[in-house]
Request: fold
Amino acid sequence: MTITDGSRHQLHLSLDQTIGEENAAVLMEHLPPVGWADVATRRDLDHQTLLIKKDMELLGAELRREMAELRGELGGEMAELRTELRGEMAEVRTDMVRLEVRMEHLFSRLLLQLIGAMAGLFALFFALSRIL
Reply:
């Protein structure tokens, strides 16, 4: 049988007549707001606790799996970055070696030009010293 607001009101009126208005109000306050089927028992709470624990365990396992995936992806990306960086560093080293060779070549040419200029000046001074 479903308890309705009308049946609760009728019960309250009957209790007023039988045990008095104040006692009826106290008794009605102790009744659940709806049927007893809606009141949770200790067993219901224990069952819900177990369900929540299982849900938390599943969520924890899923979180650990996702973290492991992220760790793997991050490791792969870091390896790619290392490879790229090593390649770029090798290119920079190669460029530096080329620059060093080019600088040695230019230095050699400059040195030869300076020696030639000094020899020309020496010859000019020697010629001028003979004339004067």
Q: What stands out?
A: Residues 1-38 form one domain. The mean pLDDT is 90. The CA atoms of residues 47 and 96 lie 72 Å apart.
